Amino acid sequence: MSFSARDLDYFLEVARHGQLARAATSLTVTAAALSKAIRRLEDEMGLGLFERSGHGMTLTPFGVAFRERAQRMKSEHDEALRHAGDVRAGRAGLIRVGATLAVLDAVLSPALAALQPRRPGMHVRLEVASSDELIDWTRQGLLDVAVIPTYESMPHGLVHEDLLTDALVAVARVGHPVFARRRLTMGDLSKFSWVLPSVHSAARAKLDEVFRSAGATPPQGAIEVHFNASWSLPVLAATDLMGIVPVSVLALPQARGVKVIPVDALSIPRRISLFSRPNTYRSPLLEEFVQALKALAPAQRSSAARKG
């Protein structure tokens, strides 16, 4: 059983929008063309893909299962075209990379800076988003690789390669009153105001877990952000707020005004890992980018050790 790539594209777009009119506008085609494509697929399989009503179109149980298969087929088709393009263009090509903001400064930026002079014709499409979003896009084949901090559990259905071991640490400005205390407890720290990751993030969940394990109330956020990285360092350096940041960003110039709070429990280990789909085609450019990431890992470990 074979399906045209165009029909699959049309089906996925209708499934995404739930309405022919919206999908037609998105694809700049007519609703009639979409309707015919859906009918061709349904006739080919002998099963309905959508429940149709005056409110729109809803996937049937079979349609939900077929959407997953259609996404895989579309990704494989797109990868085959990209592979052919790489062959025609020699070593040039496009790579689609995802990263959280937490690893952008310390990992992605140096790797791209090292690679670009060697590959001036490269085209990189960089998506910065949350870990959950990047994992989902990688599974769908919308990204070639994603560079993500991980803690304990690993996402299912993806291949991962550990690049380096990092840690989240608590910091405050140099001269903060907290450093004048001889003995610090987790209860003491929970009384201060913090710059914190979003309550929905894995980093926030780990931080709250550390405080609760010590019998202390998790800190409250004076500032809460979806992403937490180097941008918070100037804020922390100029105020009495505390924050939690990756060790890797402490090597940046912006970190000169902050200092690690000396509480062992607040050094939260994590891994920076590279995720991709199993058996995904790696173009020469993508493979070179991966090697650039791996080459930077020892330098990042050394820098983190000096700062710690």
Key words describing this protein structure:
single chain; 308 residues; alpha/beta; Arc Repressor Mutant, subunit A; D-Maltodextrin-Binding Protein, domain 2; nine-stranded mixed β-sheet; two-stranded antiparallel sheet; 10 helices; elongated; disordered C terminus
Number of separate strands = 11
What CATH calls the topology of the largest domain is: D-Maltodextrin-Binding Protein, domain 2
Stretches where pLDDT is under 50 for at least 5 consecutive residues are 301-308
CATH class call of the largest domain? Alpha Beta
Number of helices: 10
Biggest β-sheet description? 9 strands, mixed
The helix/strand class is alpha/beta
Beta-strand content: 15-25%
Indicate the percent of residues in helices. 40-55%
Q: What count of structural domains?
A: 3
**Shape summary:** elongated
N-C termini distance? 59 Å
Order of helices and strands: HHHEEHEHEHEEHEHEHEEEH
- Rg, rounded, reads 24 Å
**From the coordinates shown, what is the CATH architecture of the largest domain?**
3-Layer(aba) Sandwich
Can you identify the CATH superfamily of the largest domain? Periplasmic binding protein-like II
Kindly report the average pLDDT value: 85
Organism: Variovorax boronicumulans
GO molecular function: DNA binding; DNA-binding transcription factor activity
Pfam family, one: HTH_1
Family: Belongs to the LysR transcriptional regulatory family.
Please describe what this structure looks like:
With 308 residues, the protein is of the alpha/beta class. The chain folds into three domains: 5-71, Arc Repressor Mutant, subunit A; 87-164 and 271-307, 3-Layer(aba) Sandwich (D-Maltodextrin-Binding Protein, domain 2); 166-269, D-Maltodextrin-Binding Protein, domain 2 (3-Layer(aba) Sandwich). 44% of the residues lie in helices and 22% in strands. It has ten helices and eleven strands. It has helices spanning 5-17, 20-27, 31-45, 61-88, 101-115, 131-139, 186-190, 202-213, 233-238, 284-307, and strands at residues 50-53, 56-59, 94-99, 123-128, 145-150, 159-173, 194-197, 221-225, 242-246, 258-260, 268-276. Helix 1 (5-17) packs across helix 4. The protein is elongated and about 75 Å long. The termini are far apart. The model is unreliable at 301-308 (pLDDT under 50).
